[in-house]
Write a structure and sequence with these properties.
This protein is α+β, with helices and mostly antiparallel strands. It is built from 18 helices and 22 strands. It is globular, with a radius of gyration of 23 Å.
Length: about 575
């Protein structure tokens, strides 16, 4: 991935001003543009396409524009039955089908870089029609996979229901979130007991059943089939990475809670991320008291933005009540100084401004929290869990989960941040600034199938939060992300060093590194998702060959014709 192709930005173009930077961010944030197809052209290029399913020409853009394709064929089935018709058409005509939700991802799970407009790839937009919501019972909800997380959580809130944790962007579709075991940040606080219908693991761990379009040998065609959580095949579909197409799910949910979220920017990184054993204001100390913690550490700054959520049935005296999500406008809308600096760095290759950009981002957060009275907010869970809009700064990120025991969280955090800081210093001394975003740290529990409250419930085979059979004592995952502007020189080499450190330090002894499917990983010195050792050895070993083989076998059997494949997934599952 070259500096230019990574972002498709007009390098050196004087029109790439702050206004242009924000305009591009807004364009990337927009919903997919579906241009109605000429019927004659459609009939020629897609003969016998199912009647009643509208065809379009559409561009594809992932979250940061690193993976793009123009003019692909797309359709928006109005029902699961129409999805079946589309999939069977694709199989008979030698096309592949890629489900598309909000395209809020980084890795090539939907399409791969370099996909041409004339490729026999059909995008199936789920967010247009597969958005139904209804209560199955007092503790379960039926949802179409095209529904957004914000719409789902809003619906649950209206019925007094909610989840323990969720990803920050509300624009994610449920289907996309489940495909890659999306998560929030939560473990039990001291003395806290899990509430019925809740989980500290991924959203995939809440599934009770799912309906997918799969191959049926008896009928010789793809059909709709519903899988209960206690069925063996369901385990592979709970986190399928795009190797399946799920149209509808039933989720276990529980009573909603009110959450207080307190933000701080006054604790030095040296104290927050200190080696274990000290008595200071450490990351683990906040985790122990509240169970829900996130740290955002901007590059070349000393004071992270620490967010701490706690269950609070009634509003604390100092908290501001919030009645809607996205309560950090300074983060969702790129501030002028940040946009100016990012624009200069991208257009003028002024990457040496990374320390200035880091400071500007920190100051925007510290001042914004005060100016918007959002340093201490309280309300129904949705309103503090969802805080990231698509208008935020588009930035590339890597992603890993380190499985360990709860008492080792501070050790992992300290070791990783120490290595990161040391390498950052070494690179800067050479005049290289590969990171200009932030380090983000979250902590969750693992996917305990008992949380589904269904006898015989299966564990998601490919979830990064799948418990280790060899280390049942591991009960926690530390999620680590490093963010930087797309196209930043030396980023791949730097991130490769971090990846090698994690794989080497947490190799299954006292902890284990797994990749975060939707983010960046498998770095060579120049590219991402390309290192053969990580793809072929490290990733399979982190799950065990038996588990990986079982998942691949099920997904191949349910899609023997490779309708749901792409070059990257085929390589990953080979």
């Amino acid at each position: 991935m070259t500096e230019r192709s990574a972002c498709n930005l007009p390098q050196g173009d004087p029109s790439w001003t702050r206004r242009g930077f924000l305009r591009s961010a807004a364009a990337l944030a927009a919903v997919p543009v579906l241009v109605a197809a000429d019927p004659a052209v459609a009939a020629e290029e897609l003969p016998d396409f199912p009647a009643g399913v509208a065809l379009y020409r559409s561009a594809y853009r992932n979250w940061v524009g690193e993976i793009t394709a123009d003019g692909l064929w797309a359709c928006a089935p109005a029902s699961p039955d129409q999805v079946v018709a589309v999939v069977n058409w694709a199989w008979r005509h030698g096309w592949t089908v890629r489900a598309r939700g909000s395209s809020h991802g980084w890795s090539p799970l939907t399409i791969t870089e370099g996909t041409e407009s004339d490729a026999r790839v059909l995008l199936v937009d789920t967010a247009s029609h597969l958005t139904g919501l209804s209560l199955e019972s007092a503790s379960s909800v039926r949802a179409g996979t095209g529904v957004t997380l914000e719409a789902l959580l809003t619906y649950l809130e209206e019925h007094g229901l909610g989840v323990t944790a969720a990803p920050a962007p509300g624009v994610l579709t449920l289907g996309g979130a489940l495909a890659i075991d999306a998560h929030g940040t939560a473990v039990p606080a001291r003395g806290e007991q899990r509430l019925p219908g809740h989980t500290y693991g991924s959203l995939s761990n809440l599934l009770l059943s799912l309906t997918a379009v799969v191959w049926d040998e008896d009928s010789g065609a793809y059909v709709l089939r519903t899988y209960r959580r206690d069925e063996a095949d369901c385990a592979a579909l709970l986190t399928h990475l795009g190797r399946a197409l799920v149209t509808e799910v039933v989720l276990r949910v529980g009573a909603n809670t009110n959450l207080r979220c307190v933000s701080r920017t006054d604790i030095p990184a040296g104290e927050l991320f200190a080696a274990p054993g000290g008595a200071g204001r450490t990351f683990a100390s906040f985790l122990e008291r509240s169970g829900r913690v996130e740290a955002i550490w901007f590059a070349f700054t000393e004071f992270p933005w620490l967010k701490v959520w706690s269950v609070s049935p009634t509003r604390p005296l100092t908290s501001r009540q919030v009645t809607s999500p996205y309560n950090y406008p300074f983060s969702d809308n790129v501030p002028t100084p940040v946009a100016d600096l990012a624009g200069r760095m991208v257009s003028g290759a002024a990457w040496y401004l990374a320390p200035v950009l880091g400071t500007a981002q920190y100051e925007a957060a510290a001042l914004g929290l005060v100016a918007t009275l959002s340093a201490d907010i309280w309300g129904p869970s949705k309103n503090t869990l969802l805080y990231l809009k698509p208008t935020t700064l588009r930035i590339a990120t890597n992603g890993y989960a380190v499985l360990t025991t709860r008492d080792q969280v501070q050790r992992v955090v300290a070791e990783f941040t120490s290595f990161y800081r040391e390498r950052q210093t070494v690179y800067a001394a050479l005049g290289r600034f590969p990171v200009n975003g932030s380090v983000e740290i979250r902590v969750t529990g693992l996917d305990d199938p008992a949380d589904a409250e269904l006898d015989g419930a299966r564990t998601p085979l490919l979830s990064a939060l799948r418990p280790s059979g060899e280390h049942p004592e591991w009960d926690t995952a530390v999620w680590l992300n490093v963010l930087t502007l797309p196209g930043t020189p030396h980023a791949e080499a730097f991130l490769r060093e971090l990846e090698r450190f994690l794989l080497r330090s947490y190799d299954g002894g006292h902890a284990l590194t797994r990749v975060e499917w939707s983010k960046g990983w498998a770095y060579t010195g120049e590219e991402v998702w390309s290192d053969e050792e990580v793809l072929g050895t490290s990733v399979p070993a982190s799950y065990g060959e038996t588990v990986r083989g079982e998942a691949a076998g099920v997904l191949d059997r349910l899609d023997p014709h490779g309708v749901y494949g792409n070059a990257f997934l085929d390589r990953l599952f080979r």
